[in-house]
Design brief:
With 435 residues, this protein is an alpha/beta fold. It folds into two domains: 258 residues, Rossmann fold (3-Layer(aba) Sandwich); 138 residues, Jelly Rolls. The protein has six helices and 23 strands. The strands form five sheets. It has a nine-stranded mixed beta sheet, sandwiched between helices. Strands 13-15-20-17-18 form a five-stranded mixed beta sheet, with no helix packed on it. The protein is globular and about 75 Å long.
């Protein structure tokens, strides 16, 4: 009995280990410094989805924007969308951005629907908010209409620039002419999606839903510079319209090292809940998010010089902007030889003490809450972090805002409640000194 008991316990340990290994590895590699992972745009003239299965599959956190059915749209839908995307008195930078313009989410997902009409409903201010989100390091994934809207124009307007598109990819799309059907998907041998899944080893995904989507156009024999081909359509064996056969079904683009990655797919894999189609969607989410901008330094601090981080987004001073919820502000300071004690002092401004900011320091790289060598997580803003006999050289210092909002689901999607006063940012003064 004792031997059986040992075997049983060992077997259970092996089973638990296997279960841990089976967990999606990506969920354990979440980059720090974002409020949440995914913001889903199901706004005006788009399909409004409350669920995105891939988010549950990858263990991510999501919020969403919803609108009424197309025929029942009202001014209230447009107003609700504008409050979320463009901003409001309570949240002047909108849900997508922190007060300094940094992305608040890792990725924006834009649903299918009517691309031009949705872009028009956003207005130039809304479209510019999304462009700023991507320019400053947030990534994007769009399917069908969400793919069309990334470009400059599409085939239906004879090369006329569409001002209502986002213009986040310097190319254009062509309509496949295929509606309410399914296609096969070829995965090229050099596709970066293969870094995440092998799709059964045959480089093929069967029966992906397609409804009036597009493919990336090749102009003058080439794609726009920087465009990466992810997959191609198999529209031949399915006895569908031949023009789309082997055309580019999904693609990616990253404008610069500091921008986020744009991923577009002409089909609709987003509702898939099993098999290679789910992995297809998951691989594009992973590739998009892996294209986020790396953490950025706010400034190199000087001994004894206070830095006032007190401005809102409308001031146009991101280098001196207030900190947002779950955001990090990163700094460095050069520490000379022989320093006995270094202090990091955080100070509130009058009337703004009731927030929780943490002070962190680390000599080997960015100071994160879970890995910093030195921490002061006392509640409130005002505090001092002591670093005894710091190592000479570069010391990384971070401020982390632990105060955040609560959420509730409404007719128009995720809305904020609770500590909404954090949305316009928390001001603070930081001073580093040593002796």
């Amino acid at each position: 009995m004792k031997l059986k008991s040992i075997h049983y316990r060992c077997g259970m340990l092996l089973l638990l280990a296997a279960m841990v290994l089976a967990e999606p590895a990506f969920a354990q590699k979440k980059e720090r410094g974002f409020y949440k992972d995914v913001w889903m745009d199901g706004g005006v003239r788009l399909t409004s989805k409350k669920d995105l299965p891939v988010v549950r599959y990858l263990g991510l956190e999501m919020e969403n924007l919803l609108s009424a059915a197309t025929k029942d749209l009202s001014a209230r839908d447009t107003l609700a969308q504008s409050r979320v995307v463009v901003g409001s008195e309570m949240d002047e930078n909108g849900h997508l951005l922190y007060p300094d313009g940094a992305p608040r989410f890792r990725m924006l997902y834009l649903n299918g629907g009517l691309a031009t009409q949705h872009g028009r409903s956003l207005g130039e201010s809304g479209r510019e908010r999304i462009r700023e989100f991507i320019r400053n390091g947030g990534s994007y994934l769009g399917s069908c209409a969400g793919a069309f809207i990334t470009g400059i124009y599409c085939d239906t307007v004879e090369n006329e620039i569409r001002k209502d598109y986002l213009h986040i990819w310097p190319g254009y799309c062509i309509t496949t002419g295929m509606t309410d059907t399914y296609t096969g998907i070829f995965v090229p041998e050099d596709s970066p999606l293969l870094n995440y899944y092998d799709f059964g080893g045959d480089l093929y995904i069967d029966s992906v839903y397609h409804n009036g989507g597009c493919y990336a156009a090749i102009e003058n024999g080439a794609l726009p510079e920087g465009t990466v081909v992810l997959t191609r359509y198999d529209a031949d064996t399915m006895k569908l319209k031949k023009p789309a056969h082997k055309r580019i079904a999904s693609w990616a683009y990253k404008a610069s090292e500091n921008s986020g990655r744009v991923v577009a797919v002409g089909s609709h894999p987003e509702s898939s809940v099993y098999g290679e189609k789910l992995d297809y969607m998951a691989s594009m989410v992973k590739y998009a998010i892996d294209g986020n901008r790396a953490p950025q330094l706010k400034a190199e601090l000087e001994k004894g010089v206070s830095r006032k981080m007190i401005h809102g987004s409308s001031a146009g001073k991101p280098e001196y902007a207030k900190i947002g919820d779950k955001q990090y502000h990163h700094y460095t300071i050069e520490v000379p030889e022989g320093v006995e004690t270094l202090t990091v002092h955080l100070e509130s401004i009058p009337g703004m003490k009731n927030f929780d900011l943490y002070a962190l320091a680390n000599s080997g790289g960015f100071a994160w809450l879970d890995s910093a060598q030195y921490r002061n997580i006392k509640l409130g803003v005002d505090k001092t972090l002591f670093v005894n006999r710091p190592k000479a050289g570069k010391l990384y210092i971070s401020v982390f805002c632990a105060t955040t909002v609560d959420t509730k689901q409404t007719f128009w999607g995720t809305e904020y409640c609770g500590r909404t006063d954090v949305l316009n940012g928390v001001p603070y003064i930081i001073t580093v000194d040593y002796k």
